[in-house]
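Exercise: predict the fold of this chain.
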Amino acid sequence: MDLWYMEKFSENWGLSFRIKRGIYSACSDYQRIDVLETEEFGKLLLLDAAIMFTERDEFTYHEMLVHVPLLTHPSPKKILVIGGGDGGTLREITRHPQVEEIVQVEIDQEVIRVSKEFFPQLASGFSDPRVKIEVADGIKYMAQCPPDTYDVILVDSTDPKGPAEGLFTHQFYAHCHRALKDDGILTVQSGSPYFQQDLLARVHQAFKDLFPIAKIYLSGVISYGGLWAFSLGSKRYDPTRGPARDFPMEGLRYYTPQIHKGAFILPKYLEELLGL
């Protein structure tokens, strides 16, 4: 039998994977979780039928979400991750030896459990002694977070629907801004620059309202339909200058100092969309 899984990005366009077999399917208190084995991209994680990552190309997302902000900051010590229950973001943060504490706030403990069972290569960061897991609502956590707490905050969320909808509001970003130290950096995934342009523009405007430095950068993520956008807000450091310190490249497959700087060069249509 020829089985395919398609995620639609619009009414007229989608991305398909040939499926070898279904591995796991269940519903948590928050969402449906599926693990599929594809013919070409390894195992695939779905949350509420939306593609979270494939084993083949997840590094193109996680390396860029993490290393651009962490290497923009000259000395990040305390890091907060909102979401990211698969562990890929934690794995990349733990490559930075100067980081002293990593707090992850994930609403759905089942995502963490499933990742540990079926994606151990992503979930390796959970065992790092610097990591503290808070199973909690990230929106409520940020609303109550004390000021001047974190050097870098990373929001590794699903699309703005269901439990993640409130992670894309001006109020949430304002709470993140308050929780950052006076030289802190906030980075969030902000969607497809092809199919979610309204979202990208709205997030960028919120960052411009809150931060003296607000930038968009891109990565190529095949399983997300091509280019993917990240929004970075910085209280002091300009990410377009490139990495602020040396960092060993061993084990990395996408990020380089050259990619760091080049990722902020946007195509003309995005410059026009964002008013740059």
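Check your answer against the key: Residues 101 and 114 are 24 Å apart (CA to CA).
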